[in-house]
Write a structure and sequence with these properties.
heterodimer, A: 493 residues, 3 domains, 69% helix, globular, B: Rossmann fold, 2 domains, 5-stranded parallel β-sheet, 5-stranded mixed β-sheet, 43% helix
Amino acid sequence: MSFQSLEYALFFPLCALVYFILPKSRENLLKNIWLCLASYYFYMSSNPLYGIFLVYVTAVTYGLGLFFDKKKDGSAKSKAVIVLSVLVTILPLLVFKYSNFFLRNVNIITRRIGLGNFAELDILLPVGISFYTFAALGYVLDVRKGKIVAEKNVLNYALFVSFFPAILSGPIERAGHLIPQFKEEHKFDTDRIKNGFLLMLWGYFMKFVLSNRVAVFVDKVFNENASFVGTYSVLAVLLYSLQIYFDFASYSYMALGTGEIMGFRLISNFERPYLAGSIADFWRRWHISLTSFFRDYVYIPLGGNRKGRLRKYINILIVFAVSGLWHGASWNFIFWGLLNGAFQVIGDLLRGVRKAVGNVIGMREDCFSHKFFQTVVTFLLASFAWVFFRADSFRNALVMIKSCFVYNPWVLFDGSILDMGLKAFDIFIVIASLCIVLCVSLMNEKGIVIREKIESQEIWFKWLFYIAAILTVLVFGMYGPSYNSSDFIYFKF
Amino acid sequence: MKKALRCIIFMAVLLAVILMASNILKKKESYYYKDQFFESDLDYDVLFFGSSHMHEGIDPIYLWENYGISSYNLASAGESIQMTYHVVRAALEHTHPKAVIIDSFKIADEENEINEGYAFVHESIDSLPLGKNKLEAIDYASRFFDGGKMAFLSNMYAYHSRFSELEKKDFVKTITYDKGAYIMTEVVKAEAPEDGCYIEDTTELKGGDGVKAYKKIVELCREKGVIPILVNIPANKSNYSEKEQKKLNTLMEYTRENGGCTINFLPLLSEVGIDYDTDFGDSSHLNHLGAAKTADYLAKYLYDELGIEDHRGDENYSLEWDRDVKAWNDQKIELLKDKNDAVSYIFLAEGEDRQIKVFMADPDQTSGMYGLDFCLEKTGIEPEKVEKDDIGGFDMKVEVRRKSDGTWLAAQYFYRNDSGNFTVK
């Protein structure tokens, strides 16, 4: 079940209604049992067997949490114990996500030395496994470090790992942030529900109106790269950057809204990433829960920036290579990660040069045009890297980049662009929606919360706004049987 | 309390707006043909059901004008017999005809599925009144398409993507007076079945969903005291394979055994006078000429076998029928703008109190277009020669006026294309 399914439109209101109706009990026992059952139902509705992995990860990490909590004296601080704990936790992830990648690479070697092929495993990656495995792993590492105490209540812990708003595509929650909220009392609050609903609506707008519409063009160009080159490729590359943002951010907003309706505050996963002025800044704003996970549990333990410049650069590259591998078990994902790491390393290395050149030409770093230039360059660099993320293989990514250099700007003007599956009206909707997203982002960047602004208006205006927003998603959204609905891109991670 | 009340009012307003928007967005063609039937209380002698062969092959207006038979065509393109069952059920809940005439074309036996597109199912069932019958139809159909039941229950869900193709008819309710039929006026040569291909053999049916649905129709008719008549509307050669004929013969035998009647048009093609050079609107569906010949035979059959009477002059029928026939004649003028070739334009323009004039830059060119000579001969129109300049550089102009007072009704200009056809573009 996904947030965009009709089942969810029935499941969530029912789930929230029962949650609020259930009577108060000690430590919210009844409400948490209900949420845990609902979360398992939500997760297992697409395949009941997925429940096995969820139970495994929950049981193992619950036990490890108790184990590390008991060994606060330091007797369990050896690296072998930690590595073993991590491996046991991520075992299903390793098997289901990386075994075939490993076998493919082993086969390259065995074929070279004439040993033939190992057959790849016929397995399907359980949805969301990367997300809840990392959330649970973060819990174990936090307990081991003594940042938090182990959760003794198995129900609360099981709910933390399986919490349905975050289980399929994050945010990767921290136990110290979410588990205490299971112990709070969440009353039925119409203002909070309205806020949560608006967040969800914003997510649906991004998914149905923008992401799914842009995907029609992007998919056509990427899938038929030999036929559509030059301007088509450039547009597809730029639009894919937008598509993946709208797709993933939409899911996060739906998750945040779902949580907020029931009174839970989830980690915000995106802070307007395409307004970033550098790739490092971009990563502080993109998939924040994952970036901070890698910062806290990989980058800092490796030494971070405390062991000299060279080691810092190596650490950045390691973190981004692992991040690439987390996103997908293939070399183009690893390359995508390394490319993002390299952009940051190069950016850091050239900082002095840039400053010197800036001084010579009298560059003003505080003006709009400078910031605009930085934002555009960052967007272009991120877009370039996304090609390796989107393409089916490393080779196809290179073909796509090469095809960007074919000269055919006239396709923008001779109507050819309208043969790509989008009508003129669709293009108008994309442009108008992008303007809306840009305006909202710029206002958010200045600290203006649109929801508060709307809330301060007269009732007729508020109602008009809400109805227009709902109709916009319902009418201009691409969903339903006439549209071959695409799942959220981040599900497959 | 105040907040709860405000919330309820908001939800009511929101629902009303969504319903209004859904009504505008719904595909009117899905309601176009059957709406008038379910909105009228007129008594019908016979009702027609089935696929495009029936939808385009029987014209109730012709049956009324020439035989005084009150009928309605509830068939629709691509309709599977499983959906036909639900349309028959809805129709028999609404009215009580003497007979229902079922098209044999889509009674698939082997496949337990709907093998036509999603839009066809919508055309079949969108107009049916919401109730147990429609919900059962949706339940069955939704097994074969994405989107589940919602795809057939919610117009917003099914049709929201139509926002970019909205036109006047989406905002203003248009009543059509065609009595459910879509009669083509094009002339296309179709492939005739081979002489002597008719066989009388039967076969063992596998009892798939299609056959089960047909048997349910026969059973329903028996319950309601209505005579089911299974017919195979004249079609092209590909519809008369040995396998199809055996299946049809078996179903016809079943129908007769269960109190129904059958008309197999294959051995009657010569008697009916179907001409495969002139009586088809495309390669497999009858045009108005073929439909008229089929209706002539059928009307006599209904008179003789079922004792159906000529209702012309009977006020219970004629008040509404005469009004609708007149309205349909007027409405045909509006439909002329959708006709792209000279033959179908002239044939559609033809009617009572009509005067059609054809102006041509070179009247000798008529033989270049398939069906045009025949069309002009049939309608008795003599093309007038004019200079190209007089018709704005075009090759042909067709002008339609009211015969009684000469009022201009419509006109269309045609180019002669490379294949010799006179078309709008």
